[in-house]
Design a protein that fits this description.
- The chain is of the alpha/beta class and 547 residues long.
- It has a domain of 249 residues: ATPase, nucleotide binding domain (Nucleotidyltransferase, domain 5, 2-Layer Sandwich).
- The chain starts with a strand and ends with a helix.
Amino acid sequence: MTQINLIGVDVGTGSARAALVSLKGEVLKTCVRPIKTWNPLPNHYEQSSEDIWSAVCGCIRDVASNCSKDEIKGVGFDATCSLVALDKQGCPLTISTTGESEQNVILWMDHRAQVEADSINSTKHELLNYVGGSVSLEMECPKLLWLKNSMFEKTWIKAGAFFDLPDFLTYKATGNASRSICSAVCKWNYDAVKASWSADFLNEIGLSDLTQNNFELIGRKVNNPGDPIAGGISSDAADAMGLNPGTAVATSMIDAHAGALALLGCRSKDKEIAISLTSKLAIICGTSSCHMSLTEAPILAPGIWGPYKNAIIPNLYLNEAGQSATGVLLDYILQTHPCYTELREEHGSNNNIYTFLNEFLCDLCERKKMRSVHMLTSSLHIWPDFHGNRSPLADPKLKGMLSGLTMTKNVESLALLYLALIQALAYGTRHILDVLAQSGRERIRSILLCGGLSKNSLFVQTHADVCSIPVLLPHETEAVLLGSAMMGACAAGLYVDLKTAAYEMSGTAEVVKPDISDENRDFHDRKYRVFLRMVDDQRTYEKIMGE
């Protein structure tokens, strides 16, 4: 009997990845290739769609070589929500102040469009209710408005198409310019309730050009994730990838959303943990973190994106929150400490240093005869928004704060800073959960984690303790690639829908239970009160200085 395999493709901030995945959800082989990023000005982060596509094709060729072409039945793509600009001939069109045509992608984390985001938010258009009340400058409309305002002659009037990066990948694979509702509703202010672009919104925010020719520049046809794209892989793309022409290609997802699909379908053997999709929160932890949850009915929560209808599963509503800097912030705290060079020489990679710090903190806790490692930071507090707050305050201007610093510069001082930051990130998740609950969402009963930080035992246990709910760690760690492969399986008709694919391919998870002792909960409740007070204090300082 012929083996049935899928390919999942994920383009993150710094690399492209592909995986060969069995129909049962087993990741059989992976490949990673780096992609370039330019930073020509502060807050300007740019990439090349040609460089990305080359890396994608190389990764697919590598994993596809592990089996016969005939065994590969479907391909799914996900990527960061970066903006790709092409000219009228379909070639790269510069988005860079350098004028280099190669630099035609505005990376998701680019913050050049603050003025444009403020302008859009000042309209108070009803569609903004679906992004927590204000559009983020990381979304596409502010970036598009920046291009129109700042590069009108060089770029805007020459544009033939603007793509979210996941949709660009399916366009390159098939030649079909259809878009995914996942990207459209989550990052482009598409009206999912009316299932159409809103000419009224685009006109009001200054992007009426995008309404011309039936929204040709941003996509006339919008499909659900996992829907097959007509014709499948084109001959040219098949040659570049080492696949058969016509192989099924799925309508795409944003990278975090693909990870959420795989996580939310994952189940535990512990019968006390609810298995329904709507009882879970999926956190995709990387450079930043995305917090995803699904509901049967729409929930409007201030500072939290959504409800996005159909963004992951048809007829379910997605609320999406997040933290703008998590993994990258831990690295920053580590690398700027005086001990870093010494620890790097002794332990090698940052991951090895984090493992060492986790063990060091446990030993320190024992030496100080404390009941819990968390209590080591009773006088050290961090507000973690060094790159602004994505959720639930939706304020990109917020800054990081530290309270309780000393002049000590030994390993213990670094270990305590590291612990306080991990706690702060967990309090940020609790803050998101609190706002969702206050907005009427049913209680979240478990958290599922994937990404680099999910491999950090202290980060995982801290989230369980701070949020007082179990954390599930899928046995298949490549959740984002698995989510993309699920879409490929759905497009190939191997499962009737994405919900079924998620349940059948996600597999099981290890359960990390919270410490809900009175002493531990009291400590975190008090430290969480300090956490919330810190942002109030920051705003008080701003008010004083603005008088």
